[in-house]
Amino acid sequence: MSRQEANIYEIAKEAGVSIATVSRVMNHSTTVSEKNTKRVLDAVKKLNYVPNNAARCLSTSTSTSIGVVIPDINNPFFSQLLQGITRAADEMGLNIFLFGTNESSEREHKVLDSMREHRLCGIIITPVSAQDSDTLQKLHNFEALGIPVVLLDREVDSNAFDRVVTADEEGVFLAVSELIRIGHRKIAIITGPEASRPGYERLRGYCRALKDHGISLREDYIRKGDFMVDCAYAHTLELCRLPDPPTAIFASNNMTTYGCLKAFGELGLRIGEDIALFGFDDIDELRWLNYNVSVVSRDVPAMGEQAMRLLMRRFDSEDRPEQGTRTCLPTELIMRGSERVPGVLAER
Amino acid sequence: MSRQEANIYEIAKEAGVSIATVSRVMNHSTTVSEKNTKRVLDAVKKLNYVPNNAARCLSTSTSTSIGVVIPDINNPFFSQLLQGITRAADEMGLNIFLFGTNESSEREHKVLDSMREHRLCGIIITPVSAQDSDTLQKLHNFEALGIPVVLLDREVDSNAFDRVVTADEEGVFLAVSELIRIGHRKIAIITGPEASRPGYERLRGYCRALKDHGISLREDYIRKGDFMVDCAYAHTLELCRLPDPPTAIFASNNMTTYGCLKAFGELGLRIGEDIALFGFDDIDELRWLNYNVSVVSRDVPAMGEQAMRLLMRRFDSEDRPEQGTRTCLPTELIMRGSERVPGVLAER
DNA sequence: GTGAAAGCGCTAACAG
DNA sequence: CTGTTAGCGCTTTCAC
Q1: Which of A29-43, B17-31, B48-62, B315-329 has the least mean pLDDT?
Q2: Residues of chain A with pLDDT > 90: what percent?
């Protein structure tokens, strides 16, 4: 077993050709005579040679690595995103540098800085906040250096970047409209951070649905959440203990849904019976447990794949007619019964 | 905004020093006069300079990237592992190349090959199978090239590698012993793949507990699972429909626990009431939903951190007195009530 | 179709 | 303390 990686010179020597020829067969570039091709290939196999990527990067000033920046690896939503990204990257022969920000802007800045030195060929990021001017500037800097950036799920205050999002507003609008259609009038929402697209867009869908149906917004029914379980749990308890409690709650993300369910469990409320629940993003685990929660759903891995595809498109074509492309993937309602409350329906 | 990354020559020119001096201040190596240090730093800031990592790697033939190979990014167990790894890597200033194998040996081989070209400084891998001679050979090859490998959670048929595992056998032994202590005699297990440490070690703990207490193993109570929900679900249904069904089921991993719960739900069985359930690996989601499942638990992020630490130790010290270190982290029983079945207790 | 040679951007002796 | 220089391993003209 070789104690040291072989380099192109050793292969050339072993094959009795020049390093240029070795390089050519490794890269399938110019045609090389059949005889020499075989000799090189044999030498490569014999010496177990693999080209040094760093050298190649340096020489060509290109890269095959993309940086992926994600706020919370443990949230299944981001795992699924990551899955889609890795799958697509894999097909394209690209490697992934993974960075976690843990929802901290400070970490995000550091990460973005450290990414600079890798001369990545592209960046996919779900930024912590839409209003972080520091992050914004760093991202612009990457673009200025010719490194394409794709925003995933969350956006920033700029149209300069390609991004892939989903029709959250529409999805929530349809969901809440459905709640109204079947009789709900007292519908609460536990929102996400207002500083991010998912947060405010979902809230907007909720507001539009109520307005469109002539239902006035009630301040006590709009609870500012943070997409975390604990906060959603606390809000749900408060909502249910209101003198005039809502008959339905819209949970703005997967963790919020868990928070609601936790509170319902403690209060002895059954979804689809005592109270209605509508979630955002489907949760496999709940189905296994026979919780029939209706949700606004979307193909999360597809979002990741689409982000990779967007990046890809920026590589080959130097003409970037549509830099700043906003790809919007659809959302879909999945009705499972949790939207119902027999009492409410009867009252209609 | 610079259309092109600045290099060390531009900095040297701007600062009026040689590239060596620039290199020195960038690396805090030799001391540089205060005056020149300032001039360099100013130039760096002015030109927004970040050293090219590829060039540095090539020049020093070192690397600051470690490869992480994981079978299923979507399984929360691996997300948590990844979280621990990224956190530790971050502290150490290392970057992570993420690779997913999707539990496919074929993919694993490809990934391992593609990793070669990156001249990584270390590898952390949860291999698909313990008996894959191809993977084994590739891993040996990395070690031979001086690239340390750490196995995480799963092992391979070799003691040549550092690895971090947990006391699964002991944990399961204690869990099943506890089941017996409180009155259970008919205890089933849904196992994992026999080809991996977690699979067979957990089974072994189960067998030992029964034997130690003079309870003979029943073939119909030992169900070969695959750590997936569907399979566990099917097994649970069959177990519960046995003429002489078990009073307790041990679920060998998180997904298996879900499979059991799914089946229980359909059969109308309540854990801790009609049937006992003991799981392996804690599941936050279940607690939120008020499922009190007793489990054999372990600190999963700590496993990832420990893997990084093991790698780290191999970097600095060329003396590797203990290559092949097997770090075994503890498991712990968390009792929540699902182990009980009033009827069984009464029968004692 | 093939080889010689000039970089890619950086580090690390080696002189001074 | 500082500058010069020789690589690190590869790609890529440019001649032949």
Answers
A1: B315-329
A2: 91
Chain A residue with the nearest C-alpha to that of B264: A289
Chain B partners within 8 Å of A55 (Cβ): 54, 58
Would the pLDDT of A4 be above 90?
Answer: no
Q: Given CB atoms, is B140 within the 8 Å cutoff of chain A?
A: yes
Asked if residue A24 keeps its beta carbon closer than 7 A to nucleic acid strand D, the reply is yes
Nearest CA in chain B to A116: B50
Q: Tell me the C-alpha distance between A43 and A36, whole Å.
A: 10
- Looking at domain B65-166+300-329, its CATH class is alpha beta
Between CA A144 and CA A158 the distance in angstroms is 14
Measure CB to CB from residue B290 to each of A50, A58, A262 and give the nearest one. A262
**B213 to chain A, closest Cα gap in Å:** 34
Tell if the CB–CB gap between A76 and B73 is shorter than 8 Å: no
The pLDDT of residue A30? 81
User: Of A4, A48, A289, which to mutate for an interface test with B (greatest number of B Cβ within 10 Å)?
Assistant: A289
The SS3 of residue A86 is helix
Phi, psi at residue B287, to the nearest 5°?
A: -65, -40
Residues of chain B with C-beta less than 8 angstroms from the C-beta of A116: 50
A97 with A68: CB under 8 angstroms? yes
Q: What is the pLDDT of residue B346?
A: 62
**Going by DSSP bridges, is the β-strand pair A332-334/B248-251 parallel, antiparallel, or unpaired?**
unpaired
What is the spatial distance, in angstroms and rounded to an integer, between the CA atom of B318 and the C1' atom of C11? Answer: 21
Q: Which of B232, B338, B209 is nearest to B282 (CA)?
A: B338
Query: CATH 3.40.50.2300 occupies which residues in chain A?
Result: 65-166+300-329, 168-298+333-346
Asked if A305 contacts A87 with a C-beta cutoff of 8 angstroms, the reply is: yes
Q: Check CB contact of B91 with chain A, cutoff 8 Å.
A: no
3-class SS of residue B102: coil
By Cβ distance, the residue of B83, B117, B289 closest to A265 is B289
Q: Is the CB of A51 under 7 A from strand D?
A: yes
| Percent helix, percent strand, percent coil in chain A, to nearest 5 | 50, 15, 35
Tally the residues of chain B. Answer: 348
CA–CA separation, A303 and A313 (whole Å): 15
| CATH number, domain B8-59 | 1.10.260.40
Where along chain B do the CATH 1.10.260.40 domains lie? 8-59
Q: Does domain A168-298+333-346 have CATH number 3.40.50.1980?
A: no
Is B82 in Cβ contact with A262 (below 8 Å)? no
The answer to whether the CB of B333 falls within 8 A of the CB of B297 is: yes
* B297, containing H or E segment: strand B294-297
The residues pairing with A328 across neighbouring beta strands, listed in sequence order, are: A165
Above 80 in pLDDT, residue A130?
A: yes
A151: three-class secondary structure by DSSP:
strand
Q: Note whether B270 contacts A: Cβ–Cβ < 8 A.
A: no
The Cα B68–Cα B311 span in angstroms is 12
> Is A229 within 8 Å of B288 when comparing Cβ atoms?
yes
- Secondary structure of residue A131 in the 3-state scheme: coil
Rounded, the Å distance between the CA of B295 and C1' of D14 is 70
Sorted by sequence, the CB contacts under 8 Å of residue A28 that are 6+ apart come out as none
CA nearest neighbour of B142 among B168, B169, B114, B182 = B114
Q: Output the distance from B19 CA to D3 C1' rounded to whole Å.
A: 8
Q: Which two tokens mark B201?
A: 């070690």
Q: Is B300 on the interface with A (CB under 8 A)?
A: no
Q: Does A319 have pLDDT greater than 70?
A: no
How many angstroms is C1' of C1 away from CA of A20?
Answer: 11
| CA neighbours closer than 13 Å in the CB half-sphere of residue A176 | 31
Where helices occur in chain A by DSSP H, the ranges are: 8-15, 19-27, 34-47, 53-60, 76-91, 105-116, 133-144, 168-181, 197-212, 229-240, 254-267, 284-288, 300-316, 342-347
- Given a cut of 90, whether residue B205 has pLDDT beyond it is yes
